[in-house]
């Protein structure tokens, strides 16, 4: 079906004796922004690699429609290529040279890096590099972005800024997005749906829907409420009885 660009149907994935996913099902609808949070090693990257078609399930079915692009935590750029050349890697399928150049200009403006096209990655800050990665992933007629902790190597203020930037970019270039993050605030600020996974083999512990328009501030009531719910599911919610002791 066209409205479900990505689905996993009863997927299992094992690596030797390690069972990462067992009978795992997930449907992502067109244009949806899904955030996946869960403990380290529970299988989040494995899940994204299956959705990207980079990996195959041990059993079950993965359905992928359209062009999918992945963005990693860091070092996803080719260090020997300039900003423009890195972005153009995402435009290889665009045949017409004039169209490629027009698109490159538009993407540089979208990530606000006009004037940096001839710089190499080592000449950029971490936040600038991640913006170039996003531009490459958004280039051309990509349908889906798979983001594997794309901002986690950055400092808090840069992360906040990039969440806002990503929301703005998606307004201009709507895409289906699957974001893997350790950061529940990031998940609650950005996603239409947050999926909380258990330890390996990963199960869906809970799903939350969020409706507030993006960009959402970290202090938005819906964001705060979602964070409380996620922390409760993870067993990390602050206990009111403890606060009585500390508030003396
Ligand atoms: N190619 C592989 N070969 C063998 N084991 C693998 C492979 N890929 C992943 N694993 C194992 O699968 C498990 C899940 O790994 P995965 O990278 O998906 O976790 P993750 O949730 O992304 O963790 P993190 O939050 O630390 O990034 C780990 O135990 C890992 O060792
Ligand atoms: Mg990972």
Description:
The protein has a 6-stranded mixed β-sheet with strand order 5-6-7-3-8-9, with helices on both faces. A 3-stranded antiparallel β-sheet has the order 2-1-4. It is 35% helix and 23% strand. The chain has helices spanning 44-52, 83-89, 97-110, 126-138, 156-172, 184-190, 221-233, 240-246; strands at residues 6-15, 18-28, 33-37, 59-64, 68-71, 144-148, 176-180, 193-197, 204-209. Helix 5 (156-172) links the parallel strand 6 and strand 7. The model has no long low-confidence stretch (mean pLDDT 91). The protein is α/β, with parallel strands linked by helices. It has 2 domains: 1-66 and 143-237, 3-Layer(aba) Sandwich (Rossmann fold); 74-141, no CATH class. The longest helix is centred in the middle third of the chain and has 17 residues, at 156-172. Bound molecules: adenosine-5'-triphosphate (ATP) and magnesium ion. Adenosine-5'-triphosphate (ATP) binds at residues 15, 18, 20, 40-46.
């Amino acid at each position: 079906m066209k409205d479900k660009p990505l689905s996993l149907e009863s997927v299992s994935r094992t690596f030797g004796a390690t069972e990462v996913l067992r009978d795992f099902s997930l449907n992502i609808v067109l244009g949806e922004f899904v955030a996946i949070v869960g403990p380290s090693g529970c299988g989040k990257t494995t899940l994204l690699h299956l959705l990207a078609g980079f990996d195959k399930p041990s059993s079950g079915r993965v359905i992928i429609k359209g062009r999918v692009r992945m963005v990693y935590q860091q070092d996803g750029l080719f260090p020997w290529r300039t900003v423009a050349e890195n972005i153009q890697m995402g435009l290889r399928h665009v045949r017409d040279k004039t169209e490629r150049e027009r698109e490159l200009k538009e993407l540089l403006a979208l990530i606000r890096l006009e004037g940096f096209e001839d710089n190499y990655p080592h000449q950029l800050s971490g936040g600038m590099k991640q913006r170039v990665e996003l531009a490459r992933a958004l280039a051309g007629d990509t349908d889906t972005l798979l983001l594997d902790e794309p901002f986690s190597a950055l400092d808090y203020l840069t992360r906040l800024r990039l969440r806002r930037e990503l929301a703005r970019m998606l307004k201009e270039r709507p895409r289906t997005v699957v974001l893997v993050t350790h950061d529940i605030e990031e998940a609650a600020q950005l996603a239409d749906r947050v999926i909380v996974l258990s330890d390996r083999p990963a199960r869906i512990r809970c799903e939350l829907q969020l409706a507030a328009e993006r960009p959402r501030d970290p202090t938005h009531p819906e964001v705060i409420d979602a964070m409380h719910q996620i922390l409760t599911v993870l067993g990390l919610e602050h206990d009111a009885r403890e606060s009585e002791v500390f508030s003396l």
